[in-house]
């Protein structure tokens, strides 16, 4: 941590900041510049969360040197984390595709879609039983009935299940059905929910908040891991920018940035990012070439009847075609699909 | 709702969209342009949430004409909503100031601060017992013990209490202490929490999400009102932009926009927006002159010991000075303080 | 400047960075932390612009401590700059209002509008003879004919003139008519144009780029001042964010931030920021209460015929009303209008 | 164009808007909804740029249906534009790589770098003789001497040259050396400069402004094409968002969006977007898989001595390695390199 004193800070103010840092257990290194003095402080940054150096007289700003996350970062763990879901390994050489409808509407359509995505090569089946919707008048999901339909589809196809939880009160219920628990973008900083899924043993798919920095996203992962659950899969799904041509702006550079800063696997959701099925194909290819460990893609056998997000769903035949075209891209970057 | 057909849409595609709209109960008005055809559809937009016109062949885009909110908007209710909290009326001619520390740390300091803000003219006392913190290692609040301290301060000062709830499981508890329940920025789209506070009779202070559009914010209010609780106070607290000179960018124009679109009162939080106490004074004055119905300001008697956000807290003497300076500004725009 | 070495940097890499800094004339202060080493470097940051420390092996990042601007900042000049335009003083106690149409369309309407804004209390007349327009098919301005019309209006009313230049080749021409030369938001980083106006003696109104940080804006001012022209008036006119309810988001906190970092005066343009005349009134009041040194407001006697931006123009009678209402706000914060 | 009347618009107001539209030569189709009336207007949108319907009493908003660009869009020209630069064809099946240093510093290093990028497979050589720099104290380019060095490198290697122009006064000079004239991000809305390069016959590389929407970017291309120069290559180089882990956020979805809306070729600049050489490799692969027609990559033989942007430059050996790895990615999506 660097403490930057302002231009007019007095000797007394500088001494008093240094003294406080020493009291907190830091080692200090003042550097007197031509205009300003700065103080280098060596010690555990977490101690500073609970004491305010920044409001002391004469202090201009604090510059952190160490990352605020420990367990999600590479400082303590260098090897990539591979999240295993039965025989599926997310973060290993194989690019894993998760697919399925946004919401679960009825068993027949859902199981039918599940069979199609399985046949095309998907390893994990997605589906929403609890839906966070911007409008209170929109379809909110079938809740436990939806989870039961998912379980049926798993039985029929052997696919693993990923589904979202939106309320701390439902975590046990969702965990009892899901193979991977999803935390949606809107709940990325619902810290109580993060803690709750951190106390379960199920892998967590942690979507990036629509305006979360990568650092905040890794801090959200830190919440989960620090409760004892190391199996976090990060999911980039587009961030909010000024551009309106797409629903959100996919942050493709998040893939190499996460690989640089963290050991956790990262998958990409081109469907929610783009908001239209037309752009799913190029973005899916781009994500794999950029180094994503997997994809999560909306597929619906009757998108024009979909109770939510039909516009961004692929029909099964397009998904099959896409899966065929993704394979050479994966091979071109030394991975398999 | 306007349905824009793309340039190459066939007669059959256009007819088929029109037919679907008619089946859904809409009246339709096709307009054939030189290049594109559009279809005007008259009816309840909410019906369209559950049926996907947008994925039908030949459809380019949908343009909504009506606002998605009903209860939070002015279509059905023109008169301003005045939220009464005992004898305090938010949204009336008087500008209401809420003040107090970010988090509650100990009874002595808290009650002392409460007395000071009361003496300076604040009507409502703020304080956090449950804190949403970016880092799992940061102080998370005293929970029920904090609420008890708040209740003591209310007894001593007569101030009303506003405090945040972050978990659906705590709503009953928080509601049993608070006079106003706060929904924080990070939970603005925690729809389950919105529904839960909608089922209580306590007024709600609804902070704008850091990247929420004003429309999404009003939709969040709609969630609360549609559950039966009409007493929503909107709170602008800064949005996330590219600018880093302030913690967030206060969206001052949200005040007149909300006044144009909604009947709900709006207050401003300059402390969280700016992230530093130095800018609280000018922004507080600016907010009142722009038409805010109130302010929520962080005040702490020992900001350099504050367990969170000390940097953005005013010391009581500065707050007293600010309150004196705010009065002429309120009078200048025809209001009292 | 702080050089942060990465976790795995070798002793040789650290030594070699230190040696390079010393060669460049810096004094160095290495601090060896538990995990990382950092090097404090004392010297003129500008030297580093031309040598890349950041690509040396083992370097993680550079953290600047000093501001990159010298002449626009407060380090060398503490007293506020007052820009004098004849007898008008921008940056002094009086709040200065600039008003007039966006573009100049014909002499009669323009002179008529000029008389009305003069009568209402404006001190400076705005008008565009060279218009930067997003569409090549939109009205691009009357060019020199427009400047002549402005000169006529100055003769008739005695108002000073502010008008925009968009091409280095036109600076002499525009300077020969204008009292204040405007650099528009789209040209804030047209560095050649900045240098050119820096070589004239006319005051410059420097609008903030729609996505410029305050630091970049002050660097643009630095370009002008470093060519010898100290008379820069900063103008906040809204930044680009995700919010679409207003044309741009007015960054009201830019006012106190600029006052903190710079000695230059700052005025606010509520018309371009809001994009609609309805919000000009509250934002103008808010700007003055927040501490702006002036306002620039679009006024047009026939906004429904305006060749550009009619929607954001006030009619003269509303402007007169607004001027009356602004006065008590200015008084409330210790200024006059 | 759809004109949305507000809820309280009177019959007279609606009639008067309709009459005005008819006077302007539009055909009108009013649709009377339950709450609001809208008026569909068929005609040339460009006529409306010069007349303000939006300020007429009772008008709430205008909704454009047609795109504002004609020549840059697909309405009039469906086939992809292939920009030919000698024997190099940008926009055809082959992915074209442009490479070289950011700025030209001396002949020896530049020619050496040119030879290396040629050997590795680049077709076009980049280099800046006129540099737009945020700081007036930073290296501003060698100007004509830099262009002469570029010409020498062309002679030696046979590579085509792309270089930036930043001032209308230099367009003739730059055009006399360059094979492709670059318009940088900061000048994307320097409309005078766009017109000037539109009057030359040289192809133009048009970088996207850091906060420009795709629509604004295509409007900038429209400026160039409408002056008679159809040879525009679009270049995505990252947009400004709240994320600070990368210098800018590469908008990878701009590739399919541009392919959907325009016939112009699009290339990607991973170096400026990422701001660090470490992320150039994955983003370059991702761009090709997503469908980019080319790449522009910074390569410098001595990046630690580079006078600007050394941090984002690849050394030649890394560039050679990257070119080898890009080939299978291009093949995987049916293109060659």
UniProtKB/TrEMBL annotation, chains A, B, C, D:
GO terms for biological process: aromatic amino acid family biosynthetic process. Its EC number is 2.5.1.54. Keywords: Transferase. Residues 87-327 form the DAHP synthetase I/KDSA domain. Residues 1-67 form the DAHP synthase ferredoxin-like domain. GO terms for molecular function: 3-deoxy-7-phosphoheptulonate synthase activity; aldehyde-lyase activity. Transmembrane segments: none annotated. It comes from the Bacteria. Pfam families: DAHP_snth_FXD, DAHP_synth_1. This is 3-deoxy-7-phosphoheptulonate synthase. It comes from Acetivibrio mesophilus.
């Amino acid at each position: 941590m660097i403490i930057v004193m302002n231009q007019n800070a007095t000797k007394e103010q500088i001494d008093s900041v240094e003294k406080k840092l020493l009291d907190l257990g830091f080692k200090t290194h003042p550097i007197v510049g031509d205009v300003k003095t700065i103080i280098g402080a060596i010690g555990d940054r977490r101690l500073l969360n609970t004491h305010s150096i920044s409001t002391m007289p004469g202090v201009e700003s604090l510059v952190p040197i160490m990352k605020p996350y420990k367990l999600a970062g590479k400082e303590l763990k260098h090897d990539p984390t591979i999240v295993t879901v039965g025989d599926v390994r997310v973060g290993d050489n194989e690019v894993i595709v998760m697919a399925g409808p946004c919401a679960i509407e009825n068993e027949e359509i859902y199981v039918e879609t599940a069979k199609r995505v399985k046949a095309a090569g998907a390893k994990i089946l997605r589906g929403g039983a609890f839906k966070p919707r911007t409008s209170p008048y929109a379809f909110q999901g079938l809740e436990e009935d939806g989870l039961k339909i998912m379980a049926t589809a798993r039985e029929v196809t052997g696919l693993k299940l990923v589904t979202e939880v939106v309320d701390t009160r439902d975590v046990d219920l969702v965990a009892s059905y899901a193979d991977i628990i999803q935390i949606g973008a809107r709940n990325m900083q619902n810290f109580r929910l993060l803690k709750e899924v951190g106390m379960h043993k199920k892998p967590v798919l942690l979507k990036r908040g629509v305006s979360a920095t990568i650092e905040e996203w890794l801090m959200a992962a830190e919440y989960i891991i620090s409760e004892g659950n190391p199996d976090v899969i990060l999911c980039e799904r587009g961030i909010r920018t000024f551009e309106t041509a797409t629903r959100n702006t996919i942050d493709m550079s998040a893939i190499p940035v996460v690989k640089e800063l963290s050991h956790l696997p990262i998958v990409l959701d081109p469907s929610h990012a783009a908001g239209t099925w037309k752009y799913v194909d190029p973005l899916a290819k781009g994500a794999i070439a950029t180094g994503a460990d997997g994809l999560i893609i909306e597929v619906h056998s009757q998108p024009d009847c979909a109770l939510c997000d039909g516009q961004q769903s692929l029909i099964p035949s397009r998904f099959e075609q896409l899966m065929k075209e993704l394979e050479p891209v994966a091979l071109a970057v030394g991975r398999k699909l």
